């Protein structure tokens, strides 16, 4: 099994596929400015904060007891309570993984790495 693949529930899944499913789900959550370093908002963040993750580091995935364990790094818009935002991201990601990939999720850790302020 390659380092870039996960073996869970009897199938091999590319970590890139998992990252894509997770990123798309997380980006749809109100309050999420970006996932890792994948878009314009995070490029602007990196200009102003010198912090940006490579796309392959934005979502980390591993297998634990035949279930996926996920870590998602996001930038959040100012004004969204962090605990609710993290819960919403977890719910969206878990639903997407269950529906699209068809495997159970053991845990989803959400890291809010940057904060984006609205223009005034």
TrEMBL record:
<dbReference type="InterPro" id="IPR005531">
    <property type="entry name" value="Asp23"/>
</dbReference>
<protein>
    <submittedName>
        <fullName>Asp23/Gls24 family envelope stress response protein</fullName>
    </submittedName>
</protein>
<dbReference type="Pfam" id="PF03780">
    <property type="entry name" value="Asp23"/>
</dbReference>
<comment type="similarity">
    <text>Belongs to the asp23 family.</text>
</comment>
């Amino acid at each position: 099994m390659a380092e870039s693949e996960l073996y869970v529930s009897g199938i091999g899944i590319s970590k890139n596929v998992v990252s894509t499913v997770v990123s798309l789900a997380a980006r749809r959550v109100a309050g999420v400015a970006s996932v890792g370093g994948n878009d314009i908002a995070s490029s602007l963040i990196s200009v102003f904060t010198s912090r940006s993750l490579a796309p392959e580091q934005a979502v980390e995935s591993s297998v634990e007891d035949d279930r996926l364990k996920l870590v998602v790094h996001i930038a959040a818009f100012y004004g969204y309570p962090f605990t609710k935002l993290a819960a919403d991201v977890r719910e969206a990601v878990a639903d997407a993984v269950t529906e699209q990939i068809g495997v159970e999720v053991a845990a989803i850790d959400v890291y809010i790495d940057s904060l984006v302020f609205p223009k005034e």
